[in-house]
Each structure stands twice: as structure tokens, then as C-alpha cells.
Design a protein that fits this description.
It is built from 2 helices and 6 strands. By secondary structure, the chain is α+β, with helices and mostly antiparallel strands. A 6-stranded mixed sheet has the order 1-2-3-6-4-5. It is globular and about 40 Å long.
């Protein structure tokens, strides 16, 4: 049976979903937006670099809330609304969270729009050790 995780310290979901769903040791993290935990009405950060940091920090809060860390992540899906313009800046921030040699599989997709007018969204798949 799946376990549905809502993490009190994580950012408030922007839609009707939980922060993560777990089955058989696999943990699927809902895509996170660059919103602020505890202050969902605060404006999102400006620029893709600041938004990428906020999104990855939000994902770390979800991981921590379910007893995992970035080292347990096996796959990321990343969405950028301005792919050509923002891909390099996005990667520069992303590499700071996933050092060379421990980077999960990843897909990065250009999209036309994201919730809260974000420039970036990331979801993750993690595995319990």
C-alpha cells in the first residue's frame, strides 16, 4: 500500500496533492515550486538561479521530512519555462547540490508555463537505503 506524506515543515502545496508518495522503498517527491515554507503568499524569488535554489531547498525539506537526503535521490525531472535562456544558470546552481560523481539521472524539459509563474520546477525519485 502506498504511504502519502505531508511534511509540515515543507512549502505549502500549490494544488491538491501530498509532498511525497512512498511504495516499496521508492519515494516519489511532488514537483516543488520556488515558494517559501511558512509564507506561501511571499513573492517568489527573481531569476532562475534564485528560484532553482529555493526549489532544491524545498525538495531537501521534503526529503528530510521523510527521513532521506539528496544522496538518496536516483532521478530528477526538471522543468524550465525559458530553456535556452536559463539552462546554463540552472545547471550552475544544480551542480552545487549534486557534486560530480553523485549526480542522479536527470531529464530537463522546456515547458510553456508553470504554477505560480515559476521559471523552474523539479520533482524527484528517491530510494530508501
Amino acid at each position: 500500500m502506498p504511504v502519502y506524506h505531508s511534511v509540515p515543515t515543507a512549502a505549502t502545496p500549490v494544488g491538491p496533492f501530498c509532498h511525497a508518495t512512498e511504495a516499496d522503498g521508492w519515494v516519489m517527491l511532488t514537483g516543488q515550486m520556488p515558494t517559501w515554507p511558512g509564507d506561501p503568499d511571499r513573492p517568489i524569488p527573481d531569476g532562475v538561479a534564485a528560484q532553482t535554489e529555493r526549489v532544491l531547498d524545498n525538495l531537501k525539506l521534503v526529503l528530510d521530512g521523510v527521513g532521506l537526503s539528496l544522496s538518496d535521490v536516483v532521478q530528477c525531472r526538471c522543468y524550465l519555462t525559458e530553456f535556452k535562456r536559463d539552462f546554463a544558470a540552472f545547471n550552475a546552481v544544480y551542480m552545487g547540490y549534486f557534486p560530480e560523481g553523485v549526480r542522479p539521472a536527470r531529464t530537463t524539459i522546456g515547458v510553456t508555463a508553470l504554477a505560480v509563474d515559476a521559471l523552474v520546477e523539479i520533482d524527484m525519485l528517491a530510494r530508501r537505503p
